[in-house]
Description:
The chain is α/β, with parallel strands linked by helices. It has a single domain (6-188), classed as Rossmann fold, CATH 3.40.50. It has 6 helices and 7 strands. The chain has a 7-stranded mixed beta sheet with strand order 3-2-1-4-5-7-6, with helices on both faces. Helix 2 (33-42) packs across helix 3 and helix 5 packs parallel to helix 6. The chain is globular and about 40 Å long. The termini are far apart. It comes from Aquisalimonas asiatica. InterPro entries: MnmM_MeTrfase, SAM-dependent_MTases_sf. One of its GO terms (biological process) is methylation. This is Putative rRNA methylase. One of its GO terms (molecular function) is methyltransferase activity.
Amino acid sequence: xxxxxxxxxxxxxxxxxxxxxxxxVDATAGNGHDTVFLAGGVGDRGQVYALDIQDDxxxxxxxxxxxxxxxxxxxxxxxxxxxLLDCVGHENQGRVAAITFNLGYLPGGDRSRVTSAAxxxxxxxxxxxLLAPGGRMTILAYVGHAGGRxxxxxVEEWANALGAPFTFREVRPPGTPEQAPRLLLIDRD
Length: 189
């Protein structure tokens, strides 16, 4: 039996939260796959904020958005996810339906540039202030690079300490190998 990619599962878990006029955030735009998905779900009146620290990532994301005719729905921001709240805007606190993080490195890019707990934990703290009631945050923590397991453990420790109105769980489909990325969900009641 072929395993479904975790990225497809992320989209499945976020899709019910997206609707015309929704606000969403791709905190680590990478190659733009999640940004395009979110932009498709928020409709013409919605807004997606997609940020990345790497110019290549933003260029890749823009190309995908242009191919899908979705550029007008997305604000591309060159910024570190540790500055998430400043990048997305304090006016969006409590308004964001869906937030996605893909931790690790830019696929096809410089593998020496990776996310780390030092920037990810502050980003996640800020992300919780952005989530609307009923909103969801997904975190795909890739563990196969230097520091990846340490970052994933720090994220899980942080998430386990969250209290109401947030709930945390890990989604691990049957047969998922130990070295596979970890999919973590945070829901706001």
